[in-house]
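User: I'm putting together notes for a lab meeting next week and I want to include a structural view of one of the chains we've been expressing. I don't have a solved structure, so I'd like a prediction I can at least talk through. The sequence is below, exactly as it appears in our construct file.
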Amino acid sequence: MKLFRKDYKTMSDEALMRLYTKGDKSAFEQIYDRYEKFMVNFFNRKLWNDRIKAEDFAHDLFTKLIDNPELFDPERNFKAWLFSVANNMCKNEYKKQDIRKNTSYDVPEHYQGTDTADAPDKEVDKASFNEVLKRELDKLGDKHKEVFMMRHFDGLALEEIAAALDINTGTVKSRLHHATKTVAEKLEIFRKIIVKE
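Assistant: Thanks for the context. Below is the predicted structure for the 197-residue chain, given as structure tokens.
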């Protein structure tokens, strides 16, 4: 019996991929709906804020999935696997462009520190906050920056980051701790401004 479209929304990514490998196109449509914008934003940050390139890469990512659904092992976490494939695509592009060291990340437009959310009547200049945050992230080494971005901007769990980057969870925790501590120290001024006012 075929499921109605609304039933797909409650299914796990892995269950949807199992259905898709059996030829259920609606299952793939649900996967696409869940991750298309998410992946465009990920590629946009990783590929020098080039929105057109980001959209092309997201398209290529989903085309790979359409053409070869068997590449995904349904016993794995789909989200971590998808990020792993996307991350490898970016690494290949860095090599191709030969400018890996100049990679920069942008702070997502919707990102805002928790302190500013707690004090709506005492808004800190969001543009200044994002500028400082971006500058401090760019000072971090690539490994620390990557983990920070995947955790705080892409919302991946520690285990998902570990799987995506093919490192152990302890390494993720260590890199994340270092990055978070370093960035937090540099952004301390924003917390003090709120407290002072």
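A couple of points you could mention at the meeting. The domain at 10-101 is CATH 1.10.1740.10 (Rna Polymerase Sigma Factor; Chain: A). Residues 45 and 105 are 5 Å apart (CA to CA).

User: Perfect, that's what I needed.
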